[in-house]
Automatic annotation (TrEMBL):
Native source species: Natrarchaeobius chitinivorans
Sequence segments annotated as region (Disordered): 1-44, 298-319
Subunit note: Tetramer of two alpha and two beta chains.
Annotated protein name in UniProt: Tryptophan synthase alpha chain
Family: Belongs to the TrpA family.
Coiled coil spans: none
Length: 319
């Protein structure tokens, strides 16, 4: 953590490029208008350059936006390579009880989309930031039902990507186009049951990384790593031009090690961190921030331990 915000701002448009597998993927153009390749995605670069990556989640506004600032910067110091910030929504269908409770606390504290964006604008992190929220929040942000104002504001404050759990890939073209226009990644979740045409649709739309759901059901810390994790990574092995990160249930350094050993490029941890916020939040910002920093360090160390060969994620091939 350098004490200043080193995150690149969004805003550079992307153009479609066909990868080595024949699928089109959006890439960002440089200042001269030349295509720079998908690894110039801030999100993808953070994973490949810090492989294996630690991706963390906290809900903005729990227990307050000021506390969230301390928590995010603590995770950054602890070794998080990407940080997801939840923008609270009243019907979080993908979340388990832990994150639902966090979202409820954030809403009760008065967290709004504009308050969220102002927080992001004030954050000082090395790790790129993503927003995780639900489609209605994206669609209804502007004066009319349109995803573009939300994406424009996200890029303006320095977010690097968007995760929308309830948006089917088949209906994602408007958001995909808006993200391309502003240089943001659009991350999709691949469930253990996703296959066939639906998997192809997701992989054709995804950028930054693919969020591999470790088990069926909602989010929440678990005591072990599901066998579905190994199956999911194996099913995505052919899609080697985009990193794969595993979430849902990861809570310990040993979990991170096992997941990376199974072939993941990164691990995603949310509920275990939200539990820390719930446990220590009433004690003031400092105890929770210290505990979050220590937990991030444990998880990052575990991920690195699982990468026995110390290899970085391979760079994708482009024609």
């Amino acid at each position: 953590m350098s004490g200043e915000d080193r995150r690149p701002k969004g805003g550079e448009p992307r153009e479609p490029q066909t990868g080595s597998d024949g699928r089109e993927r959006s890439v960002r153009a440089d200042g001269n208008g030349d295509e720079r390749g998908s690894t110039d995605s801030d999100v993808e670069a953070a994973i490949r350059e810090n492989h294996p990556a630690l991706i963390t989640y906290v809900c903005a506004g729990d227990p307050s936006l000021e506390a969230t600032k301390e928590y995010v910067e603590a995770l950054d110091r602890g070794g998080a390579d990407l940080i997801e910030l939840g923008l609270p929504f009243s019907e979080p269908i993908a979340e388990g009880p832990t994150i639902q409770a966090s979202i409820n606390r954030a809403l009760a504290a008065g967290t709004t989309p504009e308050g969220f964006f102002e927080l992001v604008d004030r954050l000082e992190t090395d790790a790129p930031l993503l927003v995780m929220t639900y489609y209605n929040m994206v669609l209804q942000y502007g004066p009319a039902a349109d995803v573009r104002p939300f994406v424009e504001r996200a890029a303006e404050v320095g977010l690097s990507g968007i995760i929308v759990p309830d948006l089917p890939a088949e209906e994602a073209d408007p958001l995909r186009d808006a993200c391309d226009a502003h240089g943001l990644d659009l991350v999709f979740i691949v469930a253990p049951t996703t296959e066939g045409d639906r998997l192809e649709a997701i992989m054709s739309q995804a950028s930054g990384f693919v969020y591999v759901q470790a088990r069926l059901g909602t989010t929440g810390a678990r005591a072990d790593v599901s066998s579905a994790t190994h199956d999911g990574l194996a099913r995505l092995a052919a899609y080697d031009d985009i990193p794969r990160a595993v979430g849902f249930g990861v809570s310990e350094g040993d979990h991170a090690a096992e997941i990376v050993e199974a072939g993941a490029d990164g691990v995603i941890v949310g509920s275990a961190l939200v539990d820390i916020v719930a446990e220590h939040g009433a004690d003031g910002d400092a105890p929770a921030a210290d505990a979050l920093e220590a937990k991030a360090r444990e998880l990052k160390d575990g991920a690195v331990r699982g990468d026995a060969d110390g290899d970085r994620a391979p760079e994708p091939e482009h024609p």
